[in-house]
Amino acid sequence: MCGIVGFVGRKQAAPILLAGLEHLEYRGYDSAGVAVIDNGSLDVYKTKGRLQILSDMIGGGKILPGTIGIGHTRWATHGKPSDDNSHPHKSSSGRFAIVHNGIIENYGPLKAELEKKGVAFASETDTEVVAQLLDAYYDGDTFSTLVKVIETIEGSFALGILNRDNPHEIYAVRRSSPLIVGLSEDGNFIASDIPAVLPFTRTIYHLNDNEIVRLTEDTVEIFDTARRPIVREKEKVDWDVSAAEKGGYPHFMIKEIMEQPEALSKTIAPRITHDGSITLDGVQLTKEQLAALTHIHIVACGSAYHVGVVGKYVIEELTRIPVTADLASEFRYQNPIVDAHTLVIIISQSGETADTLAALREAKQRGATVLSIVNVVGSSIANESDNVLYTWAGPEISVATTKAYSTQLAMIYLIALYIAGQTGKISKEAFSSLLTKISALPEQVASILKLAPQLEQLAQRYAYLEHAYFLGRNLDYAVAMEASLKLKEISYIHSEAYAAGELKHGTISLIEEGTFVVALACCERLIPKTLSNIKEVKARGAEVLLVTVENCQLADEQADEVDHMIRIPQTNELLMPSLEVIPCQLLGYYIAKARDCDIDKPRNLAKSVTVE
Ligand code: G6P
Q1: Which structural domain range is residue 515 located in?
Q2: Does any ligand 1 atom lie closer than 6 A to the CB of residue 201?
């Protein structure tokens, strides 16, 4: 999973490519490179390491005079991060240079065949096969050669291609990896994502699978593989480039944490009508279809899966329909029991996660009704779903998700309540009361964000611990999973989430003097139970931080068991995850900051995971 850009126009390409890549580093950042054509010469500059190293190497791009080029930022899959494995890759003849995001699954046999014919490979990557195939199939026409290549390769790809013999055009094509086209007075662009072109233009096209685009400085032509032209409506990006920049915050993560009230309002408000009902734009499910549902699967990866775990509790409680939360990477290979009476809810911020996309296809093929919750408009998952609900979180840059998670949760509440309402499982009064509470969430989240200085102070105390355990029951446990992941992925502290009642079945043996335990107890009816579990860890020397609701009454001896306490406002028990996750995000952030970690780009991670 990587980021690609391309530019052809009337300006120097290299500085534009570097500026674009800067906005794509969230897709991977273990190496970077550019290729430009100037005076008939096609030259590649690439290096292991961050984009800054490449930028320093080519003087911010200024030393490269060409006005056409392609660029890449890499997250290694095939072959370690190294100069040789960095993109762009050139074909042996030196005619082609390409950048690639995705995986060529049949690269092994293709490489072996080419090697038999005497082709010498310069890298360990799957990508280089594409460059070498372009050479092998070249018939003087880049378009027809490219069609032959994409008919040969299997897997996922977004490709940007330069041909030294045609120094005024870029070709690009995609299959199951994202790719957009940007159009401007100064020239035209390709990119893996919109922020890369936003400094230069707001006018874009989304490309679909197997569409080939040819860019020159004045033209953009889209074709199908039979070279039939495709007419595409231009789209205007209505969010500002500053939305993709830090806006004065030290990290994207804290900016995005602070943006949550606004993101929640944008996601919730348009779905609530004046007469107090829920309208789910993009959902065509009838009352009859909903009433006939026998099972719901929520399928996702990472934090989006944790939203699914909350969803299981909430949807079952409100609709009494059995719900399973599935990891997409497991669901796709488990012969899932789904049929026409199953609703599969797919959750994905990027809309490009490979396992989630594959799970969506699997569910559709088995006849399930699919409803997707997606943040990136025009992404593969959005395109392939019959029912799409967008979270309006805006671009999320930090690898560790916060505002996307929160808006996904809000969508789950709205879906659960909508199904309950449509199927007559909830009284009018209870429906209205819950809906009012959902619309109050943005304000409540804003009030919890004011705890930031307190959490920053607490973080100093916990920053140098080696282990952490997050405990909770039911919905508190679902949030504990996300809280634990948040801490570990950005601070590199080993952390685990446990159902509070389960810890004693083995893992409690790891609790010793000073072990950090965060107990989440916001589910009022379960607070006494969780407090008993706090006693158990405290008796073994744990240092306990309790996150609970404002009106939780603790007896003196209970308060003594707790070293620190964070109190948050209350809402309906089902909605508490939206509130209790906020101090956990802040805690994770400030601990990572105190440890001086690379918060927005944690080691080994990438934001958009387009490989299995
Ligand atoms: C990566 C991100 C997570 C995200 C997960 C699923 O691991 O770092 O924040 O939850 O992928 O991504 P998606 O785009 O499908 O929500």
Answers
A1: 452-594
A2: no
